[in-house]
Amino acid sequence: MKEKVNDRTDQHGGSLENRCRFALEIVEAIVNKIGADRVGTRLSPFADYMESGDSNPRALGLYMAESLNKYDIAYCHIVEPRMETIGVEVECPESLVPLRKAFKCTFLVAGGYDRGDGNNTLLEDRADLVVYGRLFLANLDLPNQFDLDAPLNKYKRETFYISNHLVGYTDYPFLETTKDH
Does the keyword Ribonucleoprotein belong to this entry (predicted)? Predict the structure, then answer.
């Protein structure tokens, strides 16, 4: 969908509409096969990994959010533009609020949220749900830790996506507490 990597010249390249066409065709095919209530999508219009960005990520995100409404899918999960990439905090003046307003079903956000940010996002109706990826990897009892406002384990990026099943995803300590849930 992003112009920096989509150099096609057919009906799936060039204009914003054409670059998004393939993704929307996939959504339509899946919806037709299993039903819209079982389909969701994740978009990261602001990410620019390995030079795969877009010159107008806000327009890309808005177009996709509006276009996905046609299919009445269960949710749209958007990655926040402020997310941390490879250990560097990326500040972006863009906001997901226009995408939230454009998409008519359940709207999820992710990207560097902590407890306070997540709570404020929900209180200010900027999302229906907040997704905690890396924090959950390092804190398998994250809801309990949030509930107690306990200190969190720091995730270890160097252990992401490695094949050693004894290091990384399974070796973070749990919070020691006597509180029952």
Answer: no
Q: Distance between CA 42 and CA 102 in Å, rounded? A: 15
What is the amino acid identity at position 154? K
Contact by Cβ (8 Å): 160, 168: yes
**Cα-based torsion angle of the residue sequence 70, 75, 81, 82 in order, rounded to the nearest 10 degrees:** 160
Which amino acid is located at 167 in the chain? V
**What is the C-alpha R_g of the chain?**
18
Q: What is the pLDDT along the chain (181 residues), one digit of tens a residue?
A: 988 888 899 999 899 999 999 999 999 999 999 999 999 999 998 887 778 888 899 999 999 999 999 999 999 999 887 654 545 555 554 578 999 999 999 999 998 899 999 999 999 999 999 999 889 888 989 999 999 999 998 888 888 777 777 777 777 777 775 455 4
Q: pTM, whole model, 2 decimals?
A: 0.82
